[in-house]
């Protein structure tokens, strides 16, 4: 019997397929729960790493052991005529089919629900008995627009937006809308007051990024939802090596604009952005990988 045939007989291939589909579903669940629970930003990466590490041991276990009516036994200790691998294969096939249906349903919901939520948000807000959201000192960071010539820097612009969101979350007294909610308005034609009302925030940060090689121009604007007025706006023309400094300046400018509403005394600096790395190529690759992970595209 050939090696490939033996892999099929011992259900190693089926176990691998089951593991991969189950891993994808677990990552989907982790992504949803991470947006709802106060867990660290690296939780999803940790779950992915643990699942990746466990893939090979799962295949080795399927090769060495067999699940029998008497329990788990080493494959070599089970007589060929007493083997129940065919029945196990049937159960694995059924499980894989069920998980695939759940995966397809999850993809469909991810594509349909954001639009449905946006369409239904306004009527819900108009209900007379609905409790108004606390939007006094709250902000949403919308995905920055990609103005690069080739329009191929979405991963970079999203990375900048998400980094700013993560920095602002650490400011005491400032409530920040989740990434899942605010990024759902990518490309929206709605005006800022409408978006802010649907998200239940009082302020919106929007902007754009133009990147050409190692030169970047970032435009950021802080808008008050009630008046639709710009509280702060600035352009940053820098080398890419200054990206963390720019994030620091934007975050502190926002906090400085809201300092009175936050109920704190004005200080020189309230936010400190620590450079994640000094290797800019590594940072860009990290942003590309995170973008692929967030979109679940070519994972």
What is the secondary structure topology, with strand pairs?
Layout: H1 3-9, H2 12-36, H3 43-64, E1 65-68, E2 71-74, H4 85-125, E3 138-141, E4 145-146, H5 154-168, E5 175-176, H6 179-182, H7 192-199, E6 203-212, E7 215-224, E8 229-239, H8 243-262, H9 280-295
Parallel strand pairs: 3-5, 3-6, 4-6
Antiparallel strand pairs: 1-2, 6-7, 7-8
Helix pairs in contact: 2-3, 2-4, 5-8, 5-9
Shape: elongated
Strand pairing plus helix content: what structural class?
A: alpha/beta
Strand content: 15-25%
The description of the largest β-sheet is: 6 strands, mixed
Measured distance between first and last alpha carbons? 35 Å
Number of helices: 9
Helix-strand topology string: HHHEEHEEHEHHEEEHH
Radius of gyration: 25 Å
Low-confidence stretches: 114-135
Explain what you see.
The protein is of the alpha/beta class. The chain has helices spanning 3-9, 12-36, 43-64, 85-125, 154-168, 179-182, 192-199, 243-262, 280-295, and strands at residues 65-68, 71-74, 138-141, 145-146, 175-176, 203-212, 215-224, 229-239. The strands form 2 sheets. Strands 3, 4, 5, 6, 7 and 8 form a 6-stranded mixed sheet that branches.
């Amino acid at each position: 019997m050939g090696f490939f045939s033996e892999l099929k007989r011992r259900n190693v291939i089926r176990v691998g397929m089951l593991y991969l589909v189950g891993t994808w579903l677990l990552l989907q669940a982790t992504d949803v729960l991470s947006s709802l629970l106060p867990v660290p930003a690296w939780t999803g990466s940790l779950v992915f790493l643990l699942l990746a590490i466990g893939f090979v041991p799962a295949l080795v276990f399927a090769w060495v052991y067999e699940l029998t009516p008497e329990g788990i036994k080493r494959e070599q200790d089970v007589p060929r005529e007493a083997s129940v691998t065919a029945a196990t294969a049937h159960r694995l096939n059924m499980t894989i089919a069920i998980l695939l249906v759940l995966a397809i349903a999850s993809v469909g919901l991810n594509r349909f629900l954001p639009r449905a939520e946006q369409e239904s948000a306004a009527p819900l807000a108009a209900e007379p008995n609905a409790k108004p959201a606390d939007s006094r000192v709250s902000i949403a960071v919308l995905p920055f627009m990609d103005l690069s010539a080739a329009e191929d820097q979405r991963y970079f612009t999203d990375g900048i937006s998400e980094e700013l969101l993560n920095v602002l979350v650490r400011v005491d007294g400032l409530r920040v809308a989740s990434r899942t909610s605010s990024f759902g308005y990518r490309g929206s034609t709605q005006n800022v007051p409408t978006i802010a009302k649907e998200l239940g925030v009082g302020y919106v940060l929007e902007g754009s990024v133009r990147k050409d090689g190692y030169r970047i121009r970032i435009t950021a604007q802080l808008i008050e939802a009630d008046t639709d007025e710009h509280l702060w706006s600035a352009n940053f023309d820098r080398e890419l090596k200054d990206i963390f400094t720019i994030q620091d300046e934007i975050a502190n400018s926002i906090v400085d604009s809201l300092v009175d509403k936050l109920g704190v005394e004005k200080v020189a600096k309230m936010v400190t952005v620590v450079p994640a790395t000094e290797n800019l190529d590594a940072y860009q690759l990290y942003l590309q990988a995170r973008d692929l992970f967030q979109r679940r595209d070519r994972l």
